[in-house]
Amino acid sequence: MKAFAALLERLAFTPGRNAKLAHLEGYFRDAPDPDRGYALAALTGDLSLGRVKPALLRGLAEERVDPELFALSYDYVGDLAETVALIWPAAGAEGDLRLADAVESLSALGRVEAGQKLAGWLDTLGPSERLALLKLATGGLRVGVSARLARAALARVGAPEVEEIEEVWHGLELPYRELFAWLEGGPRPEAAALAPFRPVMLSTPTDAEQLDPLDPAEYAAEWKWDGIRVQAVAEQGTARLYTRTGEDISAAFPDIVERMAFEGALDGELLIRHGEVVAPFADLQKRLNRKSAGKTMRTRHPAALRLYDILTWEGEDLRPLPFNTRRTRLEAALTTLDEPRFDASPILDFTTWEELANLRADPPEAVIEGVMLKRRDSAYTAGRPRGPWFKWKRDALLVDAVVLYAQRGHGKRSGFYSDFTFALWDGDALVPVGKAYSGFTDEELRRLDRFVRDHTVERFGPVRSLQPRLVVEVAFEGLNRSRRHRSGVAMRFPRINRIRWDKPAAEADHLPALTALLPPEVTP
Amino acid sequence: MTEPLLDLTPEGLFSPALGAHIDPHRPVARAIITHGHADHARAGHGAVLATRQTLDIMAIRYGADFAGQTQVADGEITMGRARVRLVPAGHVLGSAQVVIEAGGRRAVVSGDYTRTANPACAPFEPVPCDLFVTEATFALPVFRHPPPEVEIARLLASVAAFPERPHLIGTYALGKAQRLIMLLRQAGWHAPIHIHGALQRLCDYHVEQGIPLGELRPATMDRAEARALSSAIVLAPPSAFASPWVQRFADPVVGFASGWMQIRARARQRGVELPLVISDHSDWGQLTATVEELDPAEFWITHGREDALMRWADLTGRRARPLRLLGYEEEAE
Ligand SMILES: [Zn+2]
Ligand SMILES: [Zn+2]
Fold it and tell me: Which of A13, A87, A443 should one mutate to test binding to chain B, selecting the residue with the greatest count of B CBs within 10 A?
């Protein structure tokens, strides 16, 4: 538990991705089996103990500490597990508890027995280990590690690439002994799970200039849909829906999974579609945020698949075949399936790049983000090979906004005010519309930093409020309606495109200019 | 009726028998100063009684003319209608408790203190008394400071894991900085330690006083030098982290050494990546154990979190009084 507790402690305070990876890698290298496997599952959220409820925890503590002293402490600390971990009276010698023993016992016990067991362990542990144990038992590590980040760290431990790890991921069983054995040079684990995920082929960004020397005849073009990329796999009666990083989201989309009456693996876009009309991304987001989907959710925001590739079909691996052949096979498969919620993403008709540019500039639906280009002779290769697939995104939306708050950055931007909250005019008032930082040059970073220090109105910890004087051009990919923001809108992928040192704040954009860009609301 | 040994006035704690204030936060005619931290030691008093080291530190901070006159507390001194002596408090170099005796009764004012060994100053000396006046900075049962060696080991493990990232540790200039340096030396770290300019004079003074801090280098290198650092530990006062001084370091690990780092929300507020729980104050266990050990008829609580200590006094049947003294900064030490 000591090593795991130390890992959690460092992760909880480490903002940088690289440093997080280094901490994880170190732990996975050094920790023994089966502890590291349980740790991995706990970090990725694949371990659901969560048997110990807050009231039980508080009760255990109040049997040992005066309730009034406990209340004063909890009030100050603000987190129940942390309060209990800190306040628990040390009862003699500090022992160590194997993470594996804790996990195995907790998952075997009922609630009351789990509480008693927990109290016994807390007596023998130090405060940092107590906190790790309590977070484990109550089921909330919250150290900012996604399954994806954990797999990236695993890929640093041994030879297998992250795509290979993603491929076997869903077939693995706790405590992942064969995974670690593989990382350390052993045999690759058999993909034991039915309907496993296949690593996806990704595209690279392009623009008119880069396309110019290429022959348009060699490429097929499709719309780039503003949904999420998914892989629909159905094999021997098991159907699963995966994100492009291999997260299994089947439970959230039963309306898709129950229609997957085929034998194969399809690649496409998950959308919310009412008849022929595709709903804005925000509607899909509502369903993605949930672990499961009730009947109301499903009828209000019905999911659909718009497919663009076929990886396997009825036992045959189609990935080595050229795109054109796969496309024909996909269309044939969809015809046989005859499922109204599954359709093929249409192939665009164009002969010159200019024609394609015109299509891209004026797409038929608001939920189109640009176009995809795929070499007609390309095989389906995992990862992001440069060339066979391109995304040519619609130009970003732009707005001139006034910077209102600045926050000190981390890591390479340590000490610099580099994260900004910006606002638009709404009448005479400035309304915050988003937050962004971006890859400024060193010179710009220094100048911005100086600006912030010279125009500070108030300081709150690492944040400063500023005189409303600096205008920045913010680029973003799209807009959603949002009730959580005062402005009523939420930007997607905002970043600072340009600093407008020359522009007076009074000439920044007004909120209605932004809300006019909102997609129309689609209702069933 | 006997004259009280201690009383409360708008300027702070006052001893009518001595005719002197203790750590007053406004200028007074006669002051006894427990230690050199800015919230206890202010400039502008008529006369100041303190340890040699506290007087030296005040002169370094405020200039030689920080008070009308000064007196070194050496042994027992008769002042007014009482006797006074200063005994070590274990908090920072020169820190002392004020022991006041008159009419067969004894009061002890702790100032700030810790019972944890501190290689940069003399240890706390318990003096049994009738009235004990304690600080309460960390007076909640959640404050249990780990052994400082454990925290230093965490720092060194991080330096070993990220040798290319300089470790910038926030630390107060008086006491904490030197203690950190001494703890690092005791842990076998003999490489030069870089210090921010604001720490220089007090570090020099510690060396003059026989505290061997080892090789210290000014952390005023330029960008190129700062970026070439490897396995570097840099100490700086907290204020430096909001200043452009930090910008010379590439991708630093920012740490902070303070008892507050035990609470995650506090560490997050500061944007710290490596919180180090190293305190010059008593934690809950030390505060309550000290009161039990001295077993005074009554104890008073100067500054900090008095609610929890009052509750503890209730539960253990002790007489206690919260003074709720203002003007002491919880963060400043
Ligand atoms: Zn102090
Ligand atoms: Zn103090």
Answer: A13
Here the CATH number for the domain that contains residue B302 is: 3.60.15.10
Residue extents of the structural domains in chain A: 2-138, 204-393, 397-515
Q: Is residue B267 a part of any domain in this protein?
A: yes
- Size of the A and B interface in Cβ pairs below 8 Å: 95
Read off the pLDDT of residues A220-245 as tens digits, 9 standing for 90 and up: 999 999 899 999 999 988 999 999 88
Which residues from chain B sit within 8 angstroms of residue A6, using beta carbons?
154
Fold observed for domain A397-515 = OB fold (Dihydrolipoamide Acetyltransferase, E2P) (2.40.50)
Residues B236-250 have pLDDT tens digits of 999 898 888 988 898
Nearest Cβ partner for A86 among B144, B158, B273 = B144
Contact assignment for B144 to A65 by CB distance below 8 Å? no
Residues in Cβ contact with A278 at an 8 Å cutoff, skipping those fewer than 6 apart: A225, A227, A271, A272, A365, A367, A522
What CA–CA distance (Å, rounded) separates A336 from A330? 10
The answer to whether B245 contacts A415, with C-beta atoms less than 8 Å apart, is yes
Q: What is the CA B23 to chain-centroid distance, rounded?
A: 13
Same domain for B41 and B114, yes or no, is yes
The answer to whether position B332 is within a domain reads: no
ipTM of the complex: 0.94
Our CA-based measurement puts residue B251 at a distance from the nearest CA of chain A, in whole angstroms, of 4
Domain A204-393 - what CATH class? alpha beta
pLDDT at A313: 96
> Looking at residue A201, what DSSP letter applies?
B
Which carries the bigger pLDDT value, residue A489 or residue A30?
A: A30
Please provide the DSSP assignment of A72-95 as one string.
HHHHHH--HHHHHHHHSPP-SS--
